[in-house]
Amino acid sequence: MERCSKGHYYEVSKHSSCPHCGINIDLNFERTMTKQQVDFPKTQAKVPSPPSQNDSNKTIGIVRKNLGIDPVVGWLICIEGAQKGRDFRIHSERNFIGRSDKMDIAITGDESISRENHAIVSYSPKKQNFRIYPGDSRGLVYLNDEEVINPEELQPYDVIELGQTKLIFIPFCGKKFQWK
């Protein structure tokens, strides 16, 4: 055992200096690794072909592809929250809801709504029905005051709650009307 200048005892075989007082670091880096010559094999990289000009890299929904337009199939109307009185258009297939401008349905002004994918509202042209899905965000989604855990079918005038925003669902397409 060794005693440091401040009176602490420590074991010299385990410590180069007193562990209670701190350590001494040698910042004198004079030793370096010796340089080695490495020969890399010569290979030719394949250059990827550019994507075809007519592929915009954006997926096009079936309805839009068949009709040439992406028509409105329903609406969400804000009845409570920062966007009160505003309507949001629902299109065929999946509509992602969040507060980011990248979302299909962008609800701004409510910081308690996740930026992206807080919820999803979908319309199935084949089954002619609407569904709501929970998103992959931290925030919860409520349908008529019940938490949405699994996909739920939407009915006219259902109330959807995201953060501090309440939306009422109004369908346009269904059994009585279908875009053709």
Automatic annotation (TrEMBL):
Q: Which residues form the FHA domain?
A: 95-148
InterPro entries annotated for this entry? FHA_dom, SMAD_FHA_dom_sf, YscD_cytoplasmic_dom
* Source species of the chain: Bacillus taeanensis
This protein is called FHA domain-containing protein
- Top-rank taxon of the source lineage equals Bacteria
**UniProt xrefs under Pfam families:** Yop-YscD_cpl
